User: What shape does this take?
Amino acid sequence: MYTLVKFALDDDDAWRVVNDAGAGMLVVMTPGGLASVFVPVVTSDDRCTLRSHVARVNPWWTSITDGDDVLGLFVAASAYVSPSYYPSRLENPGVVPTWNYVAAEVRGRVTLHDDPQWKLAQVKSQTGRFEAGRDPQWRVEDAPAEFIDKQLSAIVGLEIEVLSIEGKAKLSQNRPDVDHDSVRRHLGEGSLGERNTAQRMAND
Assistant: This one.
């Protein structure tokens, strides 16, 4: 990922992007070309692995083998920026549209898991991560055991050994303060995604 120094995130902030996104696109090279799948992920406490699962009927996993390279793409904020948001354009009209975003990419090696206990642990971990703070909080144990067993047989587990992570937050840091503040204000009045990006700008 091409990243100017002013937009680069340190590792802690890059991992925060992964966790804030919650899900991302996993891309692998297969004999038939590039293939992708969008899945939720859970990061290990030591940040050495990402774990997830994919539907067994999804052909994505059938063309890969343990140890294959995988690229994980995660986006935590994304919004179009119009040149009309720049007050400075009235004096310096040489401006163009752009896009503000907060993203991270993880490079790693994938391992497939089909052991029911591994998959059960992964599903419980994933459910616990995304149900945390909800009231009531749903748990895997709330569903009948035979139903869960059937669901587990319909998925294949994924474990990614993390080799590197890189994060980027492009949030109008390269614009004068008057433009930056105007962009944040306009996005703050827009869609949910635009408001999310504006909030990121307030914290950059």
In short: The chain has one domain: 5-203. Strands lie at 8-9, 23-30, 33-40, 42-43, 49-55, 68-81, 98-113, 155-170. The two ends are 20 Å apart (CA to CA). The chain has a mean pLDDT of 96.
